[in-house]
């Protein structure tokens, strides 16, 4: 990696972020709590359409507190998509609960609702206590909530939405983050908008949010001395970073628009090619966080890994999709219900440069390099 490197999804910050940060710094609110923090929570809740929000230091922390908030306890089983970032499964383990991994839909990469139904039936017949189901809005496209919400309601299992990648996306007119009892958002540096590091819980459940806020500040009681009756965490987002987030939120729609433009260009480029398609579905209004192609080498004549290697030679970053959780050494031994779809996506998927901060010359470099690759690869299936 050099300064010439085209990154996958670099932070998109400029003069507006600078002015918000300096204002927060000059206001003297440098300690964690402060007016920017409160304002940021209100603005994100309004954007998502929930009654409230609690800002925390990461999306992972938001997931951890969300699971505690819906009552997940040690020994519970929690249903987790096998195709996700490690944080979804790790948050379950922090509590001493057991993730059970379930496979995804091959077209969207989102959790396979039919398999979740099968799994819930199996777990119930075995008498397991299921603490939660955590659908993930994969790469910024909402999971199939028309299927998942009634399923969880019927089974009496809380739904916790991992909307870490999906702020600004929607599904049938509802915003990502607003599904289930509580949603978790991430503001990590590579996400659609960033506080350099941060996250948020969004929910209509005031009691759940109040408890999350309490746990995020070391569960400190409102006494003049330090009194703690339960185990808390130091998870609160700082006021300065909230100020950065407020500036990013102002620009969110513009940043989504830029990513959508990029996705449309990729779609046009790959549409005529046999065996190549973009991951996703029309059913979800994606925030276009990351554009992912899947490549069937039998039909395309080349592999996703070949394109990745070619782009790497041009100093252009790509990534495979998430390595499935059931293949992760840290979660070895966890139970899973699989169809093979996630392993297929891991083998044949490729995440392309998608960031809103990519300059026009950088984008031109990416497309020129892909054109060059396609010209070289034309002719016959891969050996
Ligand atoms: C990024 C991400 C998280 C974790 O967010 P952090 O802010 O990095 O802790 C959780 N789940 C998914 C699906 C993510 O992509």
UniProtKB/TrEMBL annotation:
- On this chain, the residues bearing N6-(pyridoxal phosphate)lysine are 191
Which keywords appear in this protein's UniProt record, sorted alphabetically? Answer: Aminotransferase, Pyridoxal phosphate, Transferase
**What InterPro entries does this protein's entry cite?**
DegT/StrS_aminotransferase, PyrdxlP-dep_Trfase, PyrdxlP-dep_Trfase_major, PyrdxlP-dep_Trfase_small
Q: Which family does it belong to?
A: Belongs to the DegT/DnrJ/EryC1 family.
State the Gene3D superfamilies in the record: Aspartate Aminotransferase, domain 1 (3.90.1150.10), Type I PLP-dependent aspartate aminotransferase-like (Major domain) (3.40.640.10)
* Cofactor(s) this protein cannot do without: pyridoxal 5'-phosphate
**Highest taxon listed in the record's lineage:** Bacteria
Q: What is the lineage of its organism?
A: Bacteria, Bacillati, Actinomycetota, Actinomycetes, Micromonosporales
Pfam family, any one = DegT_DnrJ_EryC1
Q: What is this protein called?
A: Aminotransferase class I/II-fold pyridoxal phosphate-dependent enzyme
Task: Cite a single GO MF annotation.
Answer: pyridoxal phosphate binding
Native organism? Micromonospora musae
Biological processes annotated in GO: polysaccharide biosynthetic process
């Amino acid at each position: 990696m050099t300064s010439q490197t085209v990154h996958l999804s670099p932070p998109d910050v400029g003069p507006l972020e600078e002015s918000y940060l300096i204002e927060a710094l000059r206001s003297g609110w440098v300690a964690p709590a402060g007016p920017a923090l409160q304002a940021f929570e209100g603005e994100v809740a309004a954007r998502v359409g929930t009654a409230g929000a609690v800002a925390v230091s990461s999306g992972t922390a938001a997931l951890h507190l969300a699971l505690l908030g819906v009552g997940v306890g040690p020994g519970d089983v929690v249903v987790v998509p096998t195709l996700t970032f490690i944080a979804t499964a790790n948050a379950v383990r922090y509590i001493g609960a057991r993730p059970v991994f379930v496979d995804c839909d091959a077209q969207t990469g989102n959790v396979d609702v039919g398999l979740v139904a099968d799994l819930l039936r199996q777990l119930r017949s075995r008498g397991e206590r299921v603490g939660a189901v955590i659908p993930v809005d994969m790469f910024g496209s909402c999971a199939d909530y028309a299927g998942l919400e009634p399923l969880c309601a019927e089974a009496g299992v809380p739904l916790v939405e991992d909307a870490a990648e999906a702020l600004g996306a929607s599904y049938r007119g509802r915003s990502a983050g607003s599904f289930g009892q509580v949603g978790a958002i991430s503001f990590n540096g590579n996400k659609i908008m960033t506080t350099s590091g941060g996250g948020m819980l969004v929910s209509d459940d005031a009691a759940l949010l109040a408890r999350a806020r309490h746990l995020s500040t070391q569960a400190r009681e409102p006494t003049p001395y330090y009194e703690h009756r339960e185990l808390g965490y130091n998870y609160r987002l700082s006021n300065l970073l909230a100020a950065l987030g407020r500036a990013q939120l102002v620009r969110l729609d513009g940043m989504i628009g830029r990513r959508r433009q990029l996705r449309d260009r990729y779609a046009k480029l790959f549409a005529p090619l046999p065996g190549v398609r973009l991951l996703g579905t029309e059913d979800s209004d994606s925030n276009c966080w990351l554009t992912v192609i899947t490549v069937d080498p039998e039909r395309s004549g080349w592999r996703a890994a070949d394109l990745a290697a070619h782009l790497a030679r041009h100093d252009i970053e790509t990534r495979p999709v998430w390595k499935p959780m059931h293949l992760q050494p840290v979660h070895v031994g966890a139970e899973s219900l699989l169809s093979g779809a996630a392993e297929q996506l891991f083998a044949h998927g490729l995440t392309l440069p998608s960031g809103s901060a990519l300059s026009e010359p950088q984008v031109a470099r990416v497309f020129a390099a892909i054109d060059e690759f396609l010209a070289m690869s034309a002719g016959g299936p891969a050996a």
